Amino acid sequence: MKFEQILFDIRDGVGVLTLNRPSRLNAWTYQMSAELTQAIESCNDDDEVGAMVITGAGRGFCAGADIGDTFQARLDGAGPERTRRDPTDWVGLLRQSKPIIAAVNGASVGVGATMILPCDVIMASEEAKFAMGFIKMGLVPELASSHFLAQRMGFGRASEMCLTGKMYAAREAHEMGLVDHLIPHEGLMEEALKLAGIIAANPSPQLRWIKQLLNENACETDLAAVQKREMALLHEAYGTPEHKEAVAAFLDKRTPDYRAARVKAADEG
User: Fold this and answer.
1) Is 158 helix (H, G, I), strand (E, B) or coil?
2) What is the pLDDT at residue 250?
3) What does the alpha-carbon distance between residue 209 and residue 226 come to, in Å, rounded to a whole number?
4) Does domain 204-268 correspond to CATH entry 1.20.120?
5) What's the distance, CA 25 to chain centroid?
6) Residues of the chain where predicted confidence (pLDDT) is lower than 50
7) Cα dist. 177→95, 128, 131, 174 in Å?
8) CB neighbour list of residue 63: distance below 8 Å, 6 or more residues apart
9) For the domain 6-200, what is the CATH code?
10) Which of 74, 155, 196, 219 fits a disulfide with 83 by CB distance 3.0 to 4.6 angstroms?
């Protein structure tokens, strides 16, 4: 699979997606979005991939949208091939996919910040910086970030970040709850891959069901509805080869092999 604006490889069952426009601090384009979507869908379809990491090449993670390729092109009345939105539902894609970790290595601004909010875990280098700079461009936040940001940081801090357009250092972003793990710069990818590997070793169907429950229940106030959704998926999980393998491995005092159990069940079925 060949791409022009991202790098993509698989390392020990983890898909690694790297934004690759380092001379522009990986400024976002419609093409980059389409390539990311294709790579994520490829990982979701690959039984050997259990989780993903998204990071950036060079000094930046993503310094926001490419002004010329996006905003100026729209103002200039460029053709729809340059100005239309990618039809992919980015938030829906990330929330329904295999687990994804954002490994933020540098500046994460505008869409560079909103695109990571639906990720399951956000890890950041101590050299990273974050800004919701939409107000500075005469715009408003996107990609459900007005929801996710308030969930991660709380209403007051999310309001301040969006209304000021201020840049926050990684340590401050971590203290405010935007970043889950703050990592020394040189160890960022090692730690991200380590965590992704731990997640990827778990049964894939159940990982995605857990994400589904978090999607549906995180803001749900009806606890009966929460438990109903949980019980429906719990009963489905009871019948899976992964659950049977987990029980057998526990009794046999061995490490479970969920993928092998899934393949065996498919062959026998």
Assistant:
1) helix
2) 97
3) 13
4) no
5) 19
6) 71-72, 74-76, 79-85
7) 20, 15, 14, 5
8) 24, 25, 26, 27, 107, 109, 110, 112
9) 3.90.226.10
10) 74
